[in-house]
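Quick start: read one record
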Amino acid sequence: QVHLVESGGGSVQAGDSLRLSCAASARTFTTTWWFRQAPGKEREFVSGISGSGSTTKYADSVKGRFTISKDNAKNTVYLQMNSLKPEDTAVYYCAAGGLLATIPPKPNYWGQGTQVTVSS
């Protein structure tokens, strides 16, 4: 069992940056993901990173603005979000497990989520 805890959410203005963190309860050499769910919408894939950290994947809507990274020594995955837009407003979830190449992604473990609100 892996417990994931997200942090770093908040309320910002359009164009600002935030860095989300996902701390795992144990060493995870597995794919880690970020998803988000906006009010009234389905949860959607945002980004994923392989267990080694060598391969990453992004949704088209965030490509060029968001960067996923991981620090295996700290069991933590980060999502650096730059040039935030109001449409990025959502609850952001960290997830782990599955294969980066799988479409759609099928993680086994989920965090509780952290709210990101971007105002114009």
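The chain is about 0% helix and 50% strand.
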